[in-house]
Amino acid sequence: MSFKSKLTNSEKNLLNLTPRAKSIIIGLILSDAWLQKRGSWNSRIGFKQSINNFPYLWHVYNELAYLCSSFPLAAKAITRGKIFYSVFLQTRQLACLNEIFNLFYLTISDKNGKSQVIKTVKQELFFYMDYIVLAHWILGDGSKRAKGLVLCTDNFSLQEIVLLVNILIIKFDISPTIQREKNKFRIYINEKSLIKIKPFILPYFVDHFLYKIT
């Protein structure tokens, strides 16, 4: 596979998100990925995983490669004297990603009048939620719990988590609940609900993470 490292603005504007790519990205943003947008520049996606989870990142990369200018890159970090290896991908800055940026991010002013961008959950997410979104949300932030699973939502407020739960209830006719773990709130999907959604999310799973839903 070869890349054209630089595209003209006209070429970039020809790039659009397929429905599948859009759903994958939204699922990633709900979990481990992020969007960056500087001033009037277009948005780009960043996504990083532990080197142990490279099979999943490679799967995502193959879905979104047409938005990227290079292969995934490796990184090394030292935390508390231990070396950790990760791999990450980053897309080009593209106008087609601004829609998703606006879906998840708000610009607010702090008490000193300084602007900052925060990640949030908006009601409009309801219209984007589908089984591909849910699958990648679970792939990124889901963990097996008894015969069900837990979605880590530590970075969202309780109000946002309540909104997410209601979207899941209405969209998929399941019965997720909110569980408190220390000072954080997380979404629990019980065995009955997992059995119900499993046939619909399984086609979008990677073998590396099948244990989360089996």
From TrEMBL:
Mitochondrion is among the record's keywords: yes
GO terms for MF: endonuclease activity
Matching Pfam families: LAGLIDADG_2 (PF03161)
InterPro entries: Homing_endonucl, LAGLIDADG_dom
Superkingdom to which the source organism belongs: Eukaryota
Boundaries of every Homing endonuclease LAGLIDADG domain copy: 23-194
Keyword tags: Mitochondrion
Keyword rRNA-binding: no
SUPFAM superfamilies: Homing endonucleases
Summary of the function given for this chain in its UniProt record: Mitochondrial DNA endonuclease involved in intron homing.
Descriptive protein name: Intronic ORF at intron 4 of cox1 protein
Species annotation: Lentinula edodes (Shiitake mushroom)
